[in-house]
Amino acid sequence: MPATINPNGLLDGQVAVITGASRGIGAAIAYRYAQEGAKVVVSARTMQDGDHVLEGGINNVAATINEADGSALAIRADLNLKDHRINLIEQTREAFGEIDILVNNGAVTYYAPVHDFSEKRYRLMMDVQVYAAFHLCQLVLPAMIARRSGRIVNVSSHAAIHPAKDVGSRGGAVYGMCKAALERMTTGLAAELYEDNIGVNVISPGLVATPGAVYHNLITAESQSRVTPVEHMAEACLHLVTGEARENTGAVTYAADVMSEFNLDAAELLAN
To answer: pLDDT tens-digit profile of 175-218?
Structure first.
């Protein structure tokens, strides 16, 4: 059965902002939230096909949702720029009202050994993957706290786990630093906001065959059997923003673990 929008779904009446939503995981989360009735704002630097070496764009994602009778808005934002982050939140509020769900999925990623890593690339990765998420939380939290309601999902990676000393390296030390920082920020924020009834979780997808993963040659013959369907990540991210906030917060988890623990079945997505 083809995927459809349920206007009376689990997220009926809620507003969700998803960064890094031009393709892959971010787009999948946007589709899944929209299918449950959320008004979705998709954000990234890439507006449409042809603007980036990788296929996809936020205009395409928003159009897919709107053509299915959902409600979506594409807002371009370079997360490295403060005024872009502020504009993203302000435009969302003007279009849909206060934000109920923030998904920090945006990233800029470079792989290189530490001794070859430039300061410019290091600062850009930390700014986009860590500080931008921190600042977006700051922008949405006052209204969430006032309403005693809200959800934040940060997207991490298995790279946050400390590697064994003898496994070699693909130049992922800085990427791992960024994701480890994001995970610690998540658990600290969850503790801060527990009494405010705001759920904050961080989830890693495992290995997903997104355009970015393919571009960086992360999908190999050896790893193919470990690939997680992007639909599983979308379903797990839906679970993290539903239910009682105080019972569903502070998790550092993986999509596969959420799917297994809660016996979830992944829904087909609009784009498919």
So the answer is: 999 999 999 999 999 999 999 999 999 999 977 655 555 545 55
Domain boundaries, the chain: 15-261
Residue 244 structure tokens: 């009682």
CATH of domain 15-261: 3.40.50.720
* Both tokens assigned to 124: 């850009």
Contact 105, 29 (CB under 8 A): yes
pLDDT at 165: 77
Contact 36, 68 (CB under 8 A): no
pLDDT average, residue stretch 148-160: 94
When computed from its CA atoms, the radius of gyration of the chain, rounded to whole angstroms, is 18
Pairing of strands 150-155, 198-204: parallel
- Does residue 111 carry a catalytic annotation? no
pLDDT at 130: 97
| Identity of the residue numbered 38 | A
Q: Among residues 31, 33, 131, 175, which one is catalytic?
A: 175
